[in-house]
Amino acid sequence: MGGPVPPQTEAMTDTISPSQDLITTPFDFETTALDVVDGVDLAGKRAIVTGGASGIGIETARALAQAGAEVTIAARKLDAAEAVAAEIRAGTGNDAVLVAQLELVDRDSVDALVAAWEGPLDILVNNAGVMAIAELTLSPDEHEMQFATNHLGHFRLALGLHDALAAAPDGARIVSVSSSGHLRSPVIFDDLDFRFRDYEPWAAYGQSKSANVLFAVEAARRWAEDGIVANALMPGGIMTNLQRHVDPERMEQMRRAAGGKIRLKTPEQGAATSVLLAASPLLEGIGGRYFEDCNEAETVDRRPGLGYSGVAPYALDPANAERLWTVSLELIA
């Protein structure tokens, strides 16, 4: 999966105290999203799941609906979203599964969803994403497409929905779907859009996924007094439409090279950690952390080989998080 991780441009300071125990739960790699919500009552709660019409987004929306939440599936293709919503309504008996159009790189689309939203919002799952676009591609605002989609679009959406999240009577949760791909690259603040460095698909993906973690760190800090918590996660390796830009032969070569170290999950298993952060009482009041396999991940001091896990210090660094927030505000202005 490519060459060495580029050097980070910020000091690496771990936000987790060495004396602080990592959060563990009864759940693990094999757990499904429905396992997580077994016995959980989300009646009266309202959720938005971006990218909820495909992959783990479907299973995230299904589990939240199964637990009784009103769920809005926000997706680029309304027809696909409508079909998924109808299937979830039929399967769960929950009629409050709605759809909304959302194109994350189109600021008018993001703003339209925000303007149409009325009332409090209890759960925002920033799930949609794009991976490893083969050639440098720019968004309409001329930002690298993975950074624009995975981070900037979700950043604009969360800011727009802040007041709705703050109005949630029992506090709100933001779930930022990152990836172990964040170990491929920190956020390179001096060249976010590959104007000077050579474009590499996995480095660009890694940068965007590091941004997803940093967003959760800073949102948890800034919005704590508003009753909003935010956490990031690695869902696991799942074969979904997310890999549409990756050559299938390349994916197979990577799996063979890993020598069995890459374990794939089903979409139901892949959605479990998202649903844990969105709905489980075990995570009440917890924010600014990174989870994998339904447990908080250990901080690592270097990127392992294929099949790696853990969270990089640069992705949890509060100075990086604050800087990214400031830069992102400028970029979406």
Explain the overall architecture.
This protein has helices spanning 33-37, 55-66, 78-92, 107-116, 145-160, 162-166, 201-222, 248-257, 267-270, 272-279, 313-316, 318-332, and strands at residues 46-50, 70-75, 97-101, 123-126, 172-177, 228-234, 290-292, 295-296. It is α/β, with parallel strands linked by helices. The chain has a single domain (33-332), classed as 3-Layer(aba) Sandwich (Rossmann fold), CATH 3.40.50.720. The longest helix is centred in the middle third of the chain and has 22 residues, at 201-222. The protein starts with 32 loop residues before the first helix and ends with a helix.
Can you list the strand order of the major beta sheet? 3-2-1-4-5-6-7-8
Count of individual helical segments: 12
Global mean pLDDT: 90
- What's the CATH C level? Alpha Beta
Roughly how many Å apart are the termini? 34 Å
Q: What is Rg?
A: 18 Å
CATH level 3 topology: Rossmann fold
CATH homologous superfamily annotation: NAD(P)-binding Rossmann-like Domain
Q: Describe the biggest sheet?
A: 8 strands, mixed
Uncertain segments of ≥5 residues (pLDDT<50)? Answer: 1-19
Strand content: 5-15%
**Quick one: overall form?**
globular
Number of domains: 1
